[in-house]
Amino acid sequence: MNEKTSAEKDPRFKIANKEALIGIGLVLFNFIWWFAFAYGLGGKDPSEYTYVFGLPAWFFYSCVAGVVVMAILVFFVVKRFFTDVSFDDEVYEDQ
Question: What parts of the sequence cross the membrane (predicted)?
């Protein structure tokens, strides 16, 4: 009567849910980063723009620097918080 579903018994689902939430958090952080720099610095008159490496500062910080920051952040998060999970059914059916 009190049978658990396979999703409740298998710890891989709990790991997958945690990692999916971390992924959503990274996507939200990336969007906020991009939006803040793109519209925060790019919302003024183009004659007032400052330039970094020949690119408008809003574009450089939102698109170029944002990619670098996100690549470093994703690398760190995956190494620190993600778990290597086997996809074999036999390992978890015995538990």
Answer: 20-39, 59-78
Q: What global pTM score does this model have? A: 0.78
39 HSE (CA, 13 A, CB side): 6
pLDDT at 2: 58
Phi/psi of residue 51, nearest 5 degrees: -125, 140
Instruction: Give the angle 15-21-26 at the CA atoms, nearest 5°.
Output: 125
- C-alpha 89/C-alpha 78 separation (Å) is 24
Positions of the chain with pLDDT under 70: 1-3, 6-7, 90-95
For 14, 78, 85, the CA distances from 9, given in Å and listed in that order, are 10, 25, 15
